[in-house]
Write a structure and sequence with these properties.
Layout (H helix, E strand, L loop, with lengths): L2 E3 L8 H10 L5 E3 L13 H7 L9 E2 L1 E2 L4 H13 L5 E5 L4 H4 L11 H14 L4 E6 L8 H8 L7 E4 L14 H9 L4 E4 L5 H10 L4 E4 L1 H5 L3 H5 L7 H16 L4 H15 L7 H8 L4 H13 L19
Parallel strand pairs: 1-2, 1-9, 2-3, 4-5, 5-6, 6-7, 7-8, 8-9
Helix pairs in contact: 1-11, 3-5, 6-7, 11-12, 13-14
The protein binds flavin mononucleotide.
The site of flavin mononucleotide has 23 residues, from helix 9.
Length: 323
């Protein structure tokens, strides 16, 4: 079984991927958060900071494309091929209102005919193998069987399934029954992406034998050693957790002003702190730290708390400020 690193827009940027790969390993491929090609067919500096081969050197990455326009998909696919990439992923899962309102991301699931026309055009000319990352429907689970049948008609190199509806965003349980249906009806390699938050969750899922691979998201951002341990390596140690934090901090500090660094690091540390027994109050103190001194002090308190028995992500209750 391979462990893939999920794309997480705003978190798993090129710096994060490089530092993680250098310090932990265990991940066969890191998916780059989506790139959305624009009408003028240019790749702005913001996108290049994420997908240029220079920033990804030495890290096994797969770029992800978000668009509903086949000609823009194919243009970007060729650009990415020219950069040396060998595989692409199509995003039909993004739940954000601004994305779905334009019929992109999970919005593509609302029009099976539109999706079919898009895939016909893409697969008639794709210069590279294409996989898809999808949800199990937009508004109702009743959509899933027809969507699976539609996907079965195309030569995807893999289907990555986040078994939630668009309306469920990232909260609550995942619809595991949808994985069995996909297993029965799709022939290509399948990947589950959803709620594999710690080692017991991964082991329990692996024993079901439903998919070739798994994709780890919030679990591995919270416990960066998750894939390594799942693959038979050593578990996370407390010193590694703070060393990972410090390495990210140093990298960002060499690139950005302190306000940006703190913004990025607070977001990442929200997850890392899930692996520890730090209290809610200690976490809130970190979130409210807006000077370097206050932030570093709060982080020291967080990382001096012991690790949880199974470090990983904890899904918070809806009224909770935690991620
Ligand atoms: C903050 C955040 C950003 C995300 N960005 C992307 C993205 O750019 N592309 C994508 O396909 N999925 C994205 N996802 C979804 C994740 O890749 C993953 O499928 C989802 O979090 C479920 O996996 P998990 O329960 O292991 O976190 C994002 C999720 C979160 C929480």
């Amino acid at each position: 079984m391979e462990y893939l690193f999920a794309p997480m827009e705003g978190i798993t940027d090129a710096v994060f991927r490089r530092v993680h790969h250098r310090m932990f390993g265990g991940v066969s491929r890191y998916m780059i958060p989506f790139v959305s090609p624009t009408e003028d067919r240019r790749l702005p500096p913001r996108e290049m900071r994420s997908i240029s081969p220079e920033v990804n050197r030495g890290v096994p990455v797969v770029p992800q494309i978000l668009t509903k326009r086949p000609e823009l998909f194919l243009w970007l696919a060729q650009e990415l091929k020219d950069m040396g990439y060998t595989e692409l992923n199509l995003n039909t899962g993004c739940p954000s209102g601004t994305v779905t309102a334009k019929g992109k991301g999970a919005g593509m699931l609302t029009s099976p005919d539109g999706l079919r026309a898009f895939l016909d055009a893409v697969f008639s000319a794709a210069p590279l193998p294409v996989s898809i990352k999808t949800r199990v429907g937009f508004a109702s689970l009743d959509e899933w069987p027809a969507l699976v049948d539609l996907l079965a008609g195309y030569p995807f190199s893999g289907v990555i399934i986040h078994p939630r509806l668009r309306s469920e965003f990232y909260r609550g349980d995942v619809h595991m029954e949808c994985m069995s249906y996909a297993r029965e009806h799709l022939r290509c390699p399948l990947v589950l992406s959803g709620n594999l938050f710690d080692i017991p969750a991964i082991q329990h899922y692996a024993a079901l034998g439903l998919t070739e691979h798994v994709m780890l998201g919030r679990g591995i951002v919270s416990n960066p050693a998750l894939a390594r341990e799942a693959a038979g390596g050593p578990p996370l140690s407390p010193s590694e957790l703070s060393a990972f934090h410090d390495a990210l901090y140093r990298e960002y500090a060499s690139m950005y002003p302190v306000r940006i660094v703190l913004g990025k690091m607070r977001e990442i540390t929200k997850y890392l702190a899930c692996s520890t027994l730090a209290t809610e109050r200690q976490r809130r103190t970190m979130l409210k730290a807006h000077t370097e001194e206050a932030y570093l002090e709060a982080v020291q308190v967080l990382f001096s708390a012991p690790l949880r028995t199974y470090p990983g992500y904890m899904q918070a209750s809806p009224d909770h400020i935690w991620p």
